[in-house]
Amino acid sequence: MEDFEKEIKDLAGWEKVENKLSKNFKFKDFIESFSFVTRIAIISEKMNHHPDITISYNSVHIDLTTHDINSISKNDIILARKIEELI
Amino acid sequence: MEDFEKEIKDLAGWEKVENKLSKNFKFKDFIESFSFVTRIAIISEKMNHHPDITISYNSVHIDLTTHDINSISKNDIILARKIEELI
Amino acid sequence: MEDFEKEIKDLAGWEKVENKLSKNFKFKDFIESFSFVTRIAIISEKMNHHPDITISYNSVHIDLTTHDINSISKNDIILARKIEELI
Amino acid sequence: MEDFEKEIKDLAGWEKVENKLSKNFKFKDFIESFSFVTRIAIISEKMNHHPDITISYNSVHIDLTTHDINSISKNDIILARKIEELI
User: Fold this and answer.
1) What is the average pLDDT score of chain A?
2) How far apart are CA C55 and CA C33, in angstroms?
3) Residue B41 and residue D45: Cβ atoms within 8 Å?
4) From the CA of B57, how many Å to the nearest CA of chain C?
5) What pLDDT does residue D59 have?
6) What's the pLDDT at C3?
7) Alpha-carbon distance C13 to C53, whole Å?
8) What is the per-residue pLDDT for C2?
9) Is A42 part of the contact surface with chain D (CB cutoff 8 Å)?
10) The complex's ipTM?
11) Which of D63, C67, B30, D35 is nearest to A33 (CA)?
Protein backbone atom coordinates (compact mmCIF):
# COMPACT_ATOMS: atom_id res chain seq x y z
CA MET A 1 0.00 0.00 0.00
CA GLU A 2 1.17 3.49 -0.87
CA ASP A 3 2.20 5.51 2.18
CA PHE A 4 2.20 9.04 0.67
CA GLU A 5 5.20 9.94 2.83
CA LYS A 6 6.43 12.64 0.48
CA GLU A 7 2.96 14.15 -0.08
CA ILE A 8 2.28 14.30 3.66
CA LYS A 9 5.64 15.98 4.33
CA ASP A 10 4.65 18.72 1.87
CA LEU A 11 1.40 19.37 3.78
CA ALA A 12 2.45 21.81 6.52
CA GLY A 13 1.12 20.85 9.92
CA TRP A 14 -0.57 17.62 8.82
CA GLU A 15 0.49 14.43 10.56
CA LYS A 16 -0.18 10.78 9.99
CA VAL A 17 -1.49 9.28 13.21
CA GLU A 18 -2.30 5.59 12.78
CA ASN A 19 -4.52 5.38 9.68
CA LYS A 20 -5.46 9.07 9.68
CA LEU A 21 -4.11 12.30 8.29
CA SER A 22 -4.79 14.98 10.91
CA LYS A 23 -4.37 18.68 11.55
CA ASN A 24 -5.55 21.15 14.14
CA PHE A 25 -6.48 24.70 13.11
CA LYS A 26 -6.85 27.72 15.42
CA PHE A 27 -9.02 30.76 14.74
CA LYS A 28 -9.79 33.97 16.55
CA ASP A 29 -13.29 32.93 17.56
CA PHE A 30 -16.15 30.48 16.99
CA ILE A 31 -17.53 32.38 13.99
CA GLU A 32 -14.22 32.05 12.14
CA SER A 33 -14.00 28.35 13.08
CA PHE A 34 -17.48 27.68 11.82
CA SER A 35 -16.94 29.66 8.63
CA PHE A 36 -13.88 27.48 7.90
CA VAL A 37 -15.91 24.32 8.59
CA THR A 38 -18.65 25.54 6.22
CA ARG A 39 -16.14 25.82 3.38
CA ILE A 40 -14.78 22.34 4.17
CA ALA A 41 -18.35 20.98 4.22
CA ILE A 42 -19.01 22.30 0.72
CA ILE A 43 -15.76 21.09 -0.86
CA SER A 44 -15.94 17.67 0.80
CA GLU A 45 -19.53 17.05 -0.33
CA LYS A 46 -18.44 18.10 -3.83
CA MET A 47 -15.61 15.52 -3.71
CA ASN A 48 -17.86 12.88 -2.11
CA HIS A 49 -15.11 12.47 0.43
CA HIS A 50 -15.80 13.69 3.96
CA PRO A 51 -13.40 14.32 6.82
CA ASP A 52 -14.22 13.88 10.48
CA ILE A 53 -14.44 17.44 11.80
CA THR A 54 -14.40 18.48 15.47
CA ILE A 55 -15.22 22.09 16.36
CA SER A 56 -14.24 23.28 19.87
CA TYR A 57 -14.89 27.00 19.97
CA ASN A 58 -11.89 28.55 18.13
CA SER A 59 -10.24 25.23 17.30
CA VAL A 60 -11.08 22.89 14.41
CA HIS A 61 -9.62 19.39 14.25
CA ILE A 62 -9.66 17.49 10.96
CA ASP A 63 -9.12 13.73 10.53
CA LEU A 64 -8.90 12.34 7.02
CA THR A 65 -9.04 8.64 6.22
CA THR A 66 -10.48 6.38 3.56
CA HIS A 67 -12.79 3.89 5.25
CA ASP A 68 -12.81 1.36 2.37
CA ILE A 69 -9.10 0.70 2.77
CA ASN A 70 -8.83 1.74 6.45
CA SER A 71 -5.89 3.91 5.50
CA ILE A 72 -4.90 7.18 3.85
CA SER A 73 -5.63 7.32 0.12
CA LYS A 74 -4.91 9.78 -2.67
CA ASN A 75 -8.34 11.35 -1.96
CA ASP A 76 -7.21 12.29 1.56
CA ILE A 77 -4.13 14.01 0.15
CA ILE A 78 -6.29 15.90 -2.37
CA LEU A 79 -8.77 16.98 0.30
CA ALA A 80 -5.97 18.08 2.66
CA ARG A 81 -4.55 20.24 -0.14
CA LYS A 82 -7.95 21.78 -0.83
CA ILE A 83 -8.40 22.52 2.88
CA GLU A 84 -4.99 24.26 2.93
CA GLU A 85 -6.12 26.47 0.04
CA LEU A 86 -9.03 27.69 2.19
CA ILE A 87 -6.75 29.18 4.84
CA MET B 1 -22.42 21.29 43.10
CA GLU B 2 -25.77 20.75 41.41
CA ASP B 3 -25.90 17.51 39.42
CA PHE B 4 -29.00 18.19 37.26
CA GLU B 5 -29.96 14.51 37.54
CA LYS B 6 -33.66 15.13 36.94
CA GLU B 7 -33.09 17.58 34.06
CA ILE B 8 -30.72 15.14 32.32
CA LYS B 9 -33.20 12.26 32.70
CA ASP B 10 -35.79 14.40 30.88
CA LEU B 11 -33.42 14.94 27.93
CA ALA B 12 -33.99 11.85 25.76
CA GLY B 13 -30.76 10.25 24.61
CA TRP B 14 -28.43 12.61 26.47
CA GLU B 15 -25.99 11.05 28.91
CA LYS B 16 -23.63 12.40 31.51
CA VAL B 17 -20.18 11.01 30.84
CA GLU B 18 -17.62 12.34 33.33
CA ASN B 19 -18.06 16.14 33.27
CA LYS B 20 -19.92 16.23 29.94
CA LEU B 21 -23.47 15.99 28.71
CA SER B 22 -23.35 14.07 25.43
CA LYS B 23 -25.56 12.80 22.64
CA ASN B 24 -25.04 11.25 19.24
CA PHE B 25 -27.38 12.15 16.38
CA LYS B 26 -27.81 10.22 13.11
CA PHE B 27 -28.98 11.71 9.82
CA LYS B 28 -29.60 10.39 6.35
CA ASP B 29 -26.52 12.00 4.83
CA PHE B 30 -23.78 14.59 5.29
CA ILE B 31 -25.93 17.48 4.06
CA GLU B 32 -28.50 16.83 6.80
CA SER B 33 -25.74 16.47 9.41
CA PHE B 34 -24.18 19.75 8.39
CA SER B 35 -27.51 21.56 8.26
CA PHE B 36 -28.14 20.45 11.87
CA VAL B 37 -24.68 21.65 12.91
CA THR B 38 -25.32 25.03 11.24
CA ARG B 39 -28.42 25.54 13.36
CA ILE B 40 -26.49 24.56 16.51
CA ALA B 41 -23.70 26.98 15.52
CA ILE B 42 -26.15 29.87 15.31
CA ILE B 43 -27.97 29.16 18.58
CA SER B 44 -24.77 28.48 20.53
CA GLU B 45 -23.11 31.71 19.36
CA LYS B 46 -26.31 33.53 20.34
CA MET B 47 -26.10 31.99 23.85
CA ASN B 48 -22.34 32.58 24.06
CA HIS B 49 -22.12 28.94 25.08
CA HIS B 50 -20.55 26.53 22.57
CA PRO B 51 -20.63 22.75 22.48
CA ASP B 52 -17.87 20.55 21.13
CA ILE B 53 -19.28 19.20 17.87
CA THR B 54 -17.91 16.26 15.88
CA ILE B 55 -19.26 15.60 12.39
CA SER B 56 -18.58 12.17 10.86
CA TYR B 57 -20.55 12.00 7.64
CA ASN B 58 -24.16 11.28 8.76
CA SER B 59 -23.39 11.31 12.47
CA VAL B 60 -23.08 14.34 14.75
CA HIS B 61 -21.71 14.00 18.28
CA ILE B 62 -22.33 16.79 20.80
CA ASP B 63 -20.45 17.29 24.09
CA LEU B 64 -21.66 20.01 26.43
CA THR B 65 -19.69 21.20 29.41
CA THR B 66 -18.95 24.45 31.22
CA HIS B 67 -15.19 24.97 31.24
CA ASP B 68 -15.20 27.51 34.11
CA ILE B 69 -16.52 24.94 36.56
CA ASN B 70 -15.26 21.84 34.69
CA SER B 71 -18.73 20.38 35.02
CA ILE B 72 -22.26 20.54 33.65
CA SER B 73 -24.05 23.83 34.37
CA LYS B 74 -27.55 25.16 33.83
CA ASN B 75 -26.34 26.59 30.48
CA ASP B 76 -25.57 23.08 29.22
CA ILE B 77 -29.08 21.94 30.12
CA ILE B 78 -30.56 24.97 28.33
CA LEU B 79 -28.43 24.38 25.22
CA ALA B 80 -29.29 20.65 25.17
CA ARG B 81 -32.99 21.57 25.25
CA LYS B 82 -32.56 24.07 22.41
CA ILE B 83 -30.72 21.43 20.36
CA GLU B 84 -33.59 18.98 20.93
CA GLU B 85 -36.02 21.59 19.58
CA LEU B 86 -34.05 21.64 16.31
CA ILE B 87 -34.70 17.97 15.56
CA MET C 1 -35.54 26.31 -27.50
CA GLU C 2 -37.15 23.84 -25.09
CA ASP C 3 -39.62 25.46 -22.72
CA PHE C 4 -39.93 22.70 -20.08
CA GLU C 5 -43.63 23.54 -19.70
CA LYS C 6 -44.58 20.09 -18.44
CA GLU C 7 -41.59 19.82 -16.06
CA ILE C 8 -42.34 23.24 -14.56
CA LYS C 9 -46.02 22.34 -14.06
CA ASP C 10 -44.91 19.32 -12.02
CA LEU C 11 -42.81 21.52 -9.73
CA ALA C 12 -45.31 22.72 -7.11
CA GLY C 13 -45.07 26.44 -6.46
CA TRP C 14 -42.38 27.15 -9.05
CA GLU C 15 -43.20 29.72 -11.70
CA LYS C 16 -41.52 30.84 -14.89
CA VAL C 17 -41.09 34.61 -14.77
CA GLU C 18 -39.31 35.91 -17.86
CA ASN C 19 -36.18 33.78 -18.21
CA LYS C 20 -36.22 32.53 -14.60
CA LEU C 21 -37.74 29.67 -12.65
CA SER C 22 -38.69 31.08 -9.25
CA LYS C 23 -40.19 30.07 -5.93
CA ASN C 24 -40.63 31.67 -2.54
CA PHE C 25 -40.28 29.56 0.61
CA LYS C 26 -41.49 30.48 4.10
CA PHE C 27 -40.02 29.18 7.35
CA LYS C 28 -40.75 29.69 11.03
CA ASP C 29 -37.68 31.85 11.67
CA PHE C 30 -34.32 33.00 10.33
CA ILE C 31 -32.46 29.92 11.60
CA GLU C 32 -34.71 27.63 9.56
CA SER C 33 -34.35 29.90 6.50
CA PHE C 34 -30.60 29.87 6.75
CA SER C 35 -30.44 26.13 7.34
CA PHE C 36 -32.42 25.63 4.10
CA VAL C 37 -30.07 27.99 2.24
CA THR C 38 -27.05 26.07 3.57
CA ARG C 39 -28.38 22.84 2.08
CA ILE C 40 -29.05 24.60 -1.26
CA ALA C 41 -25.52 26.05 -1.17
CA ILE C 42 -23.99 22.58 -0.83
CA ILE C 43 -26.07 20.91 -3.53
CA SER C 44 -25.67 23.78 -5.99
CA GLU C 45 -21.88 23.89 -5.60
CA LYS C 46 -21.88 20.11 -6.12
CA MET C 47 -23.85 20.58 -9.38
CA ASN C 48 -21.74 23.56 -10.43
CA HIS C 49 -25.05 25.32 -11.01
CA HIS C 50 -25.97 28.12 -8.60
CA PRO C 51 -29.30 29.82 -8.03
CA ASP C 52 -29.75 33.42 -7.00
CA ILE C 53 -30.88 33.23 -3.37
CA THR C 54 -32.45 36.04 -1.35
CA ILE C 55 -32.92 35.59 2.40
CA SER C 56 -35.33 37.97 4.17
CA TYR C 57 -35.67 36.74 7.72
CA ASN C 58 -38.09 33.76 7.47
CA SER C 59 -38.50 33.96 3.69
CA VAL C 60 -36.17 32.54 1.04
CA HIS C 61 -36.57 33.45 -2.63
CA ILE C 62 -34.91 31.30 -5.30
CA ASP C 63 -34.33 32.30 -8.93
CA LEU C 64 -32.96 29.70 -11.32
CA THR C 65 -31.67 30.51 -14.78
CA THR C 66 -28.86 29.41 -17.06
CA HIS C 67 -26.78 32.45 -17.92
CA ASP C 68 -25.12 30.91 -21.02
CA ILE C 69 -28.46 30.63 -22.82
CA ASN C 70 -30.24 33.41 -20.88
CA SER C 71 -33.10 31.01 -20.30
CA ILE C 72 -34.22 28.00 -18.27
CA SER C 73 -32.26 24.81 -19.01
CA LYS C 74 -32.52 21.19 -17.93
CA ASN C 75 -30.04 22.02 -15.11
CA ASP C 76 -32.53 24.47 -13.62
CA ILE C 77 -35.23 21.80 -13.60
CA ILE C 78 -32.85 19.33 -11.93
CA LEU C 79 -31.81 21.86 -9.29
CA ALA C 80 -35.45 22.84 -8.60
CA ARG C 81 -36.26 19.15 -8.03
CA LYS C 82 -33.31 18.74 -5.68
CA ILE C 83 -34.40 21.84 -3.73
CA GLU C 84 -37.91 20.37 -3.40
CA GLU C 85 -36.41 17.19 -1.92
CA LEU C 86 -34.83 19.32 0.84
CA ILE C 87 -38.17 20.51 2.17
CA MET D 1 -35.67 61.26 12.44
CA GLU D 2 -31.93 60.79 12.61
CA ASP D 3 -30.33 60.34 9.18
CA PHE D 4 -26.93 58.94 10.24
CA GLU D 5 -25.28 60.88 7.41
CA LYS D 6 -21.88 60.99 9.09
CA GLU D 7 -21.95 57.33 10.16
CA ILE D 8 -22.89 56.20 6.64
CA LYS D 9 -20.09 58.28 5.09
CA ASP D 10 -17.62 56.43 7.35
CA LEU D 11 -18.85 53.05 6.08
CA ALA D 12 -16.83 52.51 2.89
CA GLY D 13 -18.96 51.36 -0.01
CA TRP D 14 -22.28 51.51 1.82
CA GLU D 15 -24.98 53.70 0.30
CA LYS D 16 -28.34 54.89 1.44
CA VAL D 17 -30.90 54.03 -1.22
CA GLU D 18 -34.41 55.06 -0.18
CA ASN D 19 -34.92 53.61 3.32
CA LYS D 20 -32.08 51.09 3.04
CA LEU D 21 -28.37 50.95 3.71
CA SER D 22 -26.86 48.78 0.96
CA LYS D 23 -23.57 47.35 -0.21
CA ASN D 24 -22.46 44.83 -2.80
CA PHE D 25 -19.53 42.51 -2.05
CA LYS D 26 -17.53 40.50 -4.61
CA PHE D 27 -15.65 37.27 -3.87
CA LYS D 28 -13.55 34.87 -5.90
CA ASP D 29 -16.18 32.15 -6.02
CA PHE D 30 -19.45 30.86 -4.57
CA ILE D 31 -17.77 29.12 -1.62
CA GLU D 32 -16.26 32.42 -0.45
CA SER D 33 -19.59 34.22 -0.95
CA PHE D 34 -21.44 31.63 1.08
CA SER D 35 -18.82 31.60 3.81
CA PHE D 36 -19.25 35.38 4.18
CA VAL D 37 -23.04 34.98 4.32
CA THR D 38 -22.68 32.30 7.01
CA ARG D 39 -20.75 34.73 9.22
CA ILE D 40 -23.38 37.44 8.63
CA ALA D 41 -26.13 34.93 9.47
CA ILE D 42 -24.54 34.17 12.84
CA ILE D 43 -23.88 37.78 13.85
CA SER D 44 -27.30 39.00 12.72
CA GLU D 45 -29.17 36.27 14.61
CA LYS D 46 -27.05 37.18 17.66
CA MET D 47 -28.12 40.84 17.28
CA ASN D 48 -31.73 39.88 16.55
CA HIS D 49 -31.42 42.18 13.56
CA HIS D 50 -31.36 40.57 10.12
CA PRO D 51 -30.36 42.04 6.77
CA ASP D 52 -31.84 41.06 3.44
CA ILE D 53 -29.08 39.05 1.76
CA THR D 54 -28.91 38.14 -1.94
CA ILE D 55 -26.28 35.64 -3.10
CA SER D 56 -25.53 35.52 -6.85
CA TYR D 57 -22.58 33.20 -7.29
CA ASN D 58 -19.54 35.34 -6.30
CA SER D 59 -21.55 38.44 -5.42
CA VAL D 60 -23.38 39.16 -2.15
CA HIS D 61 -25.78 42.08 -1.85
CA ILE D 62 -26.79 43.34 1.60
CA ASP D 63 -29.77 45.59 2.38
CA LEU D 64 -30.17 46.88 5.92
CA THR D 65 -33.30 48.56 7.17
CA THR D 66 -35.37 48.68 10.33
CA HIS D 67 -38.90 47.58 9.48
CA ASP D 68 -40.52 49.08 12.60
CA ILE D 69 -39.59 52.59 11.54
CA ASN D 70 -39.32 51.90 7.78
CA SER D 71 -35.94 53.61 7.84
CA ILE D 72 -32.31 53.20 8.82
CA SER D 73 -31.73 52.94 12.57
CA LYS D 74 -28.70 52.77 14.83
CA ASN D 75 -28.97 48.94 14.64
CA ASP D 76 -28.36 49.06 10.88
CA ILE D 77 -25.22 51.14 11.41
CA ILE D 78 -23.99 48.69 14.05
CA LEU D 79 -24.68 45.67 11.83
CA ALA D 80 -22.97 47.33 8.82
CA ARG D 81 -19.88 47.93 10.98
CA LYS D 82 -19.87 44.30 12.17
CA ILE D 83 -20.18 43.11 8.56
CA GLU D 84 -17.18 45.29 7.59
CA GLU D 85 -15.14 43.64 10.35
CA LEU D 86 -15.78 40.24 8.70
CA ILE D 87 -14.04 41.20 5.47
Assistant:
1) 96
2) 7
3) no
4) 14
5) 98
6) 87
7) 16
8) 81
9) yes
10) 0.95
11) D35
Give the structural domain span for C29: 5-86
* Interface contact D59, partner C, CB < 8 A: no
Q: Which residues of B touch D41 (CB under 8 A)?
A: 42
pLDDT of A1 over the 80 cut = no
DSSP string, C26-76: E-SSHHHHHHHHHHHHHHHHHHT---EEEEETTEEEEEE-BTTTTB--HHH
Residues lower than pLDDT 50 in chain D: none
pTM, full prediction = 0.96
Q: Is C34 on the interface with B (CB under 8 A)?
A: yes
CA-only gyration radius of chain D, Å? 12
* Domain-embedded: residue D75: yes
Burial class (CB in 10 A: 0-12, 13-18, 19+), C57: middle
Residue B10 clears pLDDT 90, i.e. is over it: yes
The CATH number covering residue C45 comes to 3.30.1360.20
* Continuous segment of H or E residues that includes residue D11: none
Give how many domains chain C has, as a whole number: 1
Distance (Å) of CA D49 to CA C70, C74, D40: 36, 38, 11
Q: Quick one: closest CA in D to A44, which residue?
A: D31
SS (H, E, C) D21-73: EEEEEECCCHHHHHHHHHHHHHHHHHHCCCCEEEEECCEEEEEECECCCCECC
* β-pair partners for A25: A60
Q: What is the pLDDT of residues A63-77, one digit of tens each?
A: 999 999 999 999 999
Does C34 lie at the interface with A, CB-CB under 8 angstroms? no
Hey, is the C-beta of C67 within 8 angstroms of any chain A C-beta? Answer: no
